[in-house]
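Same chain as my last thread, 336 residues:
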Amino acid sequence: MRDVATHRGEPIKDETLQFLRNQHRAAVETQGNPASLLRLTQLQLAEADRKSQQSAIQIEVLTQALQDRQALLNNVELQLREIQHRDALIALQIDRVTEERDDLLRQRTQLQSELAALKGELEWVTLRADELETECSSLETKIAALEGPEGVEDFTPGFMSIGILDMVGFTSIARRLDEEELISLIERVRRLCNQVSTITGARFFHIRNSDVSFVAPTASAGAETALLLSESETTTVLDDLEAEVRIGVCYGQVYATAGIMLGTTVSLAERLSSIAPKDGVLTDSSLIERLREESTLHIPGEIEGKYAANPMWQRPVRGLGVVEPWLLVRPPNTGT
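reply #2:
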C-alpha cells in the first residue's frame, strides 16, 4: 500500500490502513494455529503500544495545556486581586475626598457667614469713625474759637528757639472721650501753656489736634519751656490715656507770618519731635552751643547748672540729611 501510494503520489488514508489491519487480524484469527495466535498477539501488542504512545502524547499535550491554563489562571487571579486592591484604594480615596469635601463645604458656609458679619461690622465702624472724625473737627473749631485771636498774632521773626510738643495718639484719645472730657483735657493743656509762658516768656502760637508749638527769644527759655512741658502733670494725664508726649526744640532762624512759622529750624524741630523718646526732649547742636554761650558756668555735661545734654547717635532725617540730636534733661538732684 505504501509503494502504490508512493507510485501514485497520493497519501494513504487512515481508514484504508485500519481496514487492512482489521482484515489481517481477522485472517490470523481464522487460522487458529499457535503461529497465528502469536502473530495476533504481536499485532495486539503493537496496537496497544501505538495507543499507549498516543495516550502518552495526549498526556503530555494535556499536561502542557493544563500548565498553560494554570499559568493563565494565576495571572488572571493576580490581575483580579490588583484590580480589587485598586478598587479598594479608590473607594477609600472617594470616602476621604467626600469627607474632605463635606468639611470644606462646612468651612465655606461658616466663613461666608463670618465674612458677612465682618462686612456689616466694618461698615458700622467706618460710619462711626467718620462721625467721630467729624465730631473732632467740630470740637477743634470750637476750641479755636474759644481761644480767640491771641494765638495767631504775628511776631518779629529772627533767631530764636522753636519747639514742637507732639501728642502721639491724641486722635484716638479724642475718639474715646466725650465732648466735655475732651474740652476739659484741652483746657488743661492750654492752662499749662499759659503757666509755662508766664515762667519762661515763651509764646504758644497754635494748639492743634495733636501738637503744640512755641517760640522763645533765647535758647535757655526754649530749653526751660520744653523741660517744663515734659515734666508737667498734663503729660502724666496723657500717659494715663496712652498718649506719648514727645518734644523737639531747636535754635536758629525762624520766619513767620500770620501764625505760620517756616524755615529749616522749624522743620528740624518737627522732625526731632517725631523721633524723640516718650516724655523726652530732643534738641540740636545749635541750641546746645547757644546755651553754653548764654551760660556763665562751664560745668562739663551741664549748662547753667540747670540742664544736661547727652549726644544721641547720628541718624538721617527726611529732607535734612544726617543730624546728631541731643537728649536734653535735668542734671541729677536738680529741681525745676
